[in-house]
Amino acid sequence: MIIAIDGPAGSGKSSLSRELAEKSDFTYLDTGAMYRALTLLCLERGIDPRDEDVVERVAQHLDISFADAPKGTEQNAEGASETGQRVFANGQEVTDAIRTAEVDENVSLVALHPNIRKIMVEKQRVFAKGANIIAEGRDIGTVVFPQAEVKVFLSADAKARATRRTIEREGGDPTAPGAAVKDKAFFEKTYADILKRDKIDEERCASPLKPALDAKLLDTTHLTLAQAVDTVLKWAEAARAQAAQ
Ligand code: DC
After folding, report:
1. pTM (predicted TM-score)
2. In angstroms, what is the span from residue 241 Cα to ligand 1's centroid?
3. Fewest CB within 10 angstroms: 122, 146, 150, 169, which?
């Protein structure tokens, strides 16, 4: 079975997917981390993220793998392992390096190119073959796994999303009671970046960010993580029961 979790930056996809994977027998696939790893490799090699041909060559030779982080390291000092998974690109650990402001600023540009998206989608489908998967991204229900049994499109007010992302990057847990932003200037930068990324993700021609026609919409602005998890688990149970009929 595939559970597809789509939605804009900071809508809570990572926290929700990680928690769902922990509470079920599903494997978590963070497709945003794949685009981030590709962006990082390009930046490290001085490649312009707008240069589709060169970025495509890097994508073709990109070997991504994931490993579960040891318990207790989900929120490290930099908040870098916010998905609770370690990420490797061509054998090099990039868990922390893919969550920097520089990668944030460039990743939407890399994800714009249709040929690059095709290569990444193929890698995502290989990953999911024969497995129970919770896949998180922007185009999972619409393009990558249109056959997914459960499709969820998360949303949340942009300020709420920027607040969560800032707390994560400050090493905090945005789902903890009383969690608050420490650095206001960093919050403003994160907010501006989220608005910019939303615009690029929504307006791009290849796989724009939008809910699948049969996606269930879940606004997390006023939901706790536990409430969001319960809701999706109920949808998954209903889908399983329906498939068994
Ligand atoms: O979820 P995230 O912030 O880690 O995603 C990073 C970027 O990658 C985001 O700006 C959009 C892009 N992305 C995408 O275009 N398609 C996906 N399936 C996942 C992410």
Report:
1. 0.86
2. 31
3. 122
